[in-house]
Amino acid sequence: MPRDLLVSQSAPIRLLNKTSHILDAVCTWLEATTLSHTMKTIEWTIPAVQTVHILAVATVVTPVLMIDLRLLGIGARELAIGSIANRFFPYVWWPLPVLLATGIALIAAEPSRTLKNPIFLLKMGLLIAAAGVTLGCQIPLRRDAEFWDRNAARRRTVRLMAIASLSLWIAIIFAGRWIAYVQGS
Question: Is residue 105 a contact partner of residue 35, using CB atoms and an 8 Å limit?
Answer without folding.
Answer: yes
